[in-house]
Hints:
This protein is mainly α. It has one domain (12-212). The chain has ten helices and no strands. It has helices at 12-30, 32-35, 45-53, 56-81, 88-102, 104-114, 118-147, 152-155, 163-182, 193-208. Helix 1 runs antiparallel to helix 4 and helix 7 runs antiparallel to helix 9.
Amino acid sequence: MPDQPAARYFDKGRVEAYTDAVFAIAATLLVLDLTTTAIGQVGSDGQLWADLAGMWPSFSGFGVSFALLSLLWMIHLQQFRDIARADATLIWLNNARLLFVVLIPFTTSLVSDYSDYYAGRMLLPINFFFAALLGHLSWRWAAARDGHLLTEESTSQIIYQGAGGLAAVICGFVAMAVSPWAGSWGFLAYAFNGLLTGAIQRRRLRRMGPTAS
Length: 213
């Protein structure tokens, strides 16, 4: 039988550089919804402050999306700290993840402009949910087959890893489920990401038993 071709791996540094660029562009584009909002003619300081106060839906949407975008970037940063190399599957999972990342400025603008409509409230949490889900799937693939894409140091600690990504998926699902009624308040579910991450890690340790330590 002919020899099986060796698996092809790619430099993870290129993946990280591309990902950082996409996140940076998405974060920058978030502010365009603020800069394109027309305040109109202003006759006094009081009128300017009043007009700025009237933009609070845009300001709140920007703040929430920037915070959650930063959370997704931090999860990616933590994951690739433990990933040694990338293969084609991981690259395409990461590209799919970035597809939803670059959509965040658009879906954020829908919240501020069309929050009275069901689609306007739903699309942003759906967007974040799929970005988080694909991030978790990227990690699951890297950790599969005894951590075939992970560093040697991290393969023995797989039990502790990936919990943050899974927690983000759960929080994203909750936010998506309640957003039709709660609107942007549904994103408060992400405030529990840290607590949920710790709970998932403790549960995994209990399932592994004494050998996990």
